């Protein structure tokens, strides 16, 4: 490509872009806009307040992990048919509902907690279709980890 052709290619590119923009935006897209009367700035009372910015608590990450664990336990205990799970079907879902009720002050927070639960449930639903020794081991580890998280939050952040 010679240096002499480069300027003409740029001109062609500019014309093509102008044509595309004209077709996309309409023929009057590049015309001067008609003068519209200026509106006065809204009074301070008319300006909508920004959506409340929620400051998550310092234990938010731990709660999200606990939510994932509860979702995983709901799936794994149903797959493994453990005696305690058979007696109290849905116990982990009920505990998650209580967690959301107590900690979900805003819609965004409720959505994050429920999303964690769903991630845990779906992740293990995709992995475990039958109870295996590894699934039983995961249940044991999640019970330990979930208990530890609950104790840590309780000891550190409650009176």
Describe the structure.
With 159 residues, the chain is mainly alpha-helical. The protein has a domain at 60-157. The protein contains 6 helices and no strands. Helix 2 runs antiparallel to helix 6 (133-157). The longest helix has 25 residues, at 133-157. The protein is globular, with a radius of gyration of 29 Å. It starts with a helix and ends with a helix. Residues 1-33 have low confidence and may be disordered.
Q: Which tags fit this structure?
A:
single chain, 159 residues, mainly alpha, globular, disordered N terminus
Question: What global shape is seen?
Answer: globular
Instruction: List low-confidence stretches.
Output: 1-33
What is the structural class? mainly alpha
String of helices and strands:
HHHHHH
Query: End-to-end span in angstroms?
Result: 76 Å
- Which range best describes the helical content: under 10%, 10-25%, 25-40%, 40-55%, 55-70% or over 70%? 55-70%
- Could you tell me the number of beta strands? 0
Biggest sheet layout? none
Number of helices, counting only DSSP H or I runs of 4 residues or more: 6
Using the CA coordinates, give the radius of gyration: 29 Å
| Whole-number mean pLDDT | 73
Write the layout of secondary structure elements.
Elements: H1 5-25, H2 60-80, H3 83-87, H4 91-103, H5 107-127, H6 133-157
């Amino acid at each position: 490509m010679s240096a002499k052709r480069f300027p003409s290619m740029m001109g062609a590119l500019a014309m093509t872009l102008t044509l595309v923009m004209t077709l996309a935006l309409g023929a009057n897209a590049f015309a001067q806009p008609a003068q519209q009367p200026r509106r006065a700035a809204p009074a301070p009372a008319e300006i909508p307040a920004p959506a409340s910015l929620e400051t998550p608590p310092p234990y938010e990450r731990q709660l999200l992990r606990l939510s994932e664990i509860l979702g995983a336990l709901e799936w794994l205990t149903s797959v493994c048919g453990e005696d305690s799970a058979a007696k109290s079907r849905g116990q982990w879902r009920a505990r998650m509902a209580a967690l959301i009720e107590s900690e979900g002050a805003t819609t965004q927070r409720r959505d994050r907690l429920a999303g964690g639960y769903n991630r845990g449930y779906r992740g293990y639903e995709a992995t475990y279709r039958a109870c295996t020794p590894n699934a039983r081991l995961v249940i044991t580890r999640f019970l330990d980890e979930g208990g530890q998280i609950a104790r840590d939050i309780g000891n550190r952040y409650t009176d």
